[in-house]
Amino acid sequence: MFDTLSDRLAATFKNLRGKGRLSPADLDATAREIRVALLEADVALPVVREFIAAVKERASGAEVHQALNPSQQVIKIVNDELVRILGGETRRLRFAKHPPTVIMLAGLQGTGKTTLAGKLGRWLKAQGNHPLLVAADLQRPNAVQQLQVVGERAGVPVFAPEPGNGVGDPVAVAKASIEHAHSKLYNVVVIDTAGRLGIDAEMMKQAADIRDAVSPDEVLFVVDAMIGQDAVATAQAFLDGVGFDGVVLTKLDGDARGGAALSVAQVTGRQIMFASNGEKLDDFDVFHPDRMASRILGMGDLLTLIEQAERTFDADQAAKMAEKVASGRAHEMTLEDFLAQMEQVRKLGSISKLLGMIPGMGEMREQINNIDEREIDRIAAIIKSMTPAERAEPKIINGSRRARIARGAGVTVTDVNGLLDRFGDAQKMMKQMSRGGGGFPGMPGMPGIPGMPGGGKKSRGKSAGKKGKKPNRSGNPARSGNPAKQSGGQPGRTSPGELPAAFGGGAFGGGSATGQPGPDDIDLPPELRDFLGGGPR
Q: How many whole angstroms separate alpha carbon 112 and alpha carbon 508?
């Protein structure tokens, strides 16, 4: 949704690079480009004016003039202001002191309230709560049945005493749901109310009556992020007529310009609390203004990626694989392990979405969007077409076996060959990492990718000379590439896992021959150290 805005902002900041000092003309041009980018993203005009005024005021102050890199300081200012207009700090749900906590969903018809009720119920259940969904939308045809289906998929019970389709009193249903929650010990009640095609007096009155009847702890206004500035006008009218405590954005995965997300919090003064970015029930999470600003500026969202991995990955399986690598048994990795790792990644969701959360991947957006999400399914089909013996020992897979596997998986023999080649490369990389003490391939002085410094087979480039001929060697020590020769000492040899003295030390895990601190002496933040599994201090 924010791709166009991200591209425009990236092009604007690119013009600032390399400038040691920003003149007033540079700041005016930058502010003008940012203003155009925001207006093209359908951000409300009052929000744009306030945003640009704040950026210009800070950018023309001492914090930029005294900065070592003014362009980066401007980017920081824009990031700070984006976080501010998106709501500032993350807003969490307020739970009642005495259960049940009552959450009322309101909004126009077609914004996705019923589906959102199921997503919210599933999220609350994952947080350790016992939610109850209430079907109080008795006007829209089959709204009650839809909520029952969504609730069943989410594993959350639904309270639906009335059939709907114009039959029943929504206010009475809402009241009865609170009593039902008390008797069945549900600690959260999510009430799905009726929407309309536009703001009207009847809708306002019904929503106000339900609010007065159940006294909700949170009234959440559901906004379709694809309808642009009209979403802001609707939110303001609903705020004046009924009132709400927070905003939920739906359809953030759409291709609209996304101005509602950047406007609604600033205009209404109510923070965005949740965001839905897909059709699946797990495409839902708390809205973090700082992370959204980071995505808009193309800086990725590693925290969300880490949180998704922690929720999805099997800790025992990951520990077994790490133990294999650490103990030097990487050669024991089988195609079963390979398939398990691929399926773990698959559980994280769309591969293109995951890559989009990595910093710097915004420049490769076109390639990411062209990723074939079914490739993992093809790999799974190929591996599952093998016998247990073939998965455990791929070396026994000869030509006839490959043809049989290809027929079973519905692919070509070339696809099977490609998978086996990739698996062989993965095995080699794991062996190199375990041999190098858990290092990364391709880094100097460590086993790595063939042709890269410090590991693998030597590449046969032009410098190797013709076959059968020795390369010319100079007898002048000053022209030698060996640091020991240049210093007049005896030429020394470094082991495959050891850095030359000129690079400041021994192996990756060892100290420094020059007295400089090695990687083991680096103090990492506690959160990063815990995530890496107790790596360097």
A: 53
Distance, in Å, from the CA atom of 394 to the CA atom of 392, rounded to the nearest integer, reads: 6
pLDDT of residue 493: 40
Contact 61, 71 (CB under 8 A): no
**Measured on CA atoms in the order 214, 215, 221, 222, is the torsion positive or negative?**
negative
- Return the higher-pLDDT residue of 478 and 453: 478
| Helix%, strand%, coil% for the chain, nearest 5 | 50, 5, 40
CA distance 249 to 224: 6
Q: What is the pLDDT of residue 454?
A: 39
| Cα atoms found within 13 Å of the Cα of residue 499, Cβ hemisphere only | 20
Tokens of 50: 């306030």
If one counts every other C-beta atom within 10 angstroms of the C-beta of residue 426, the result is 15
Distance CA 126, CA 337 (A): 28
Output Rg (C-alpha) for the chain, integer angstroms: 30
- Tell me: pLDDT of 450 over 90: no
What distance in Å separates the CA atoms of residue 64 and residue 31, rounded to the nearest whole number? Answer: 14
Burial bucket for residue 515 (CB in 10 Å: 0-12, 13-18, 19+):
exposed
Pairing type for strands 188-192 and 131-135 reads parallel
Q: In this structure, what token pair is assigned to residue 260?
A: 């509602």
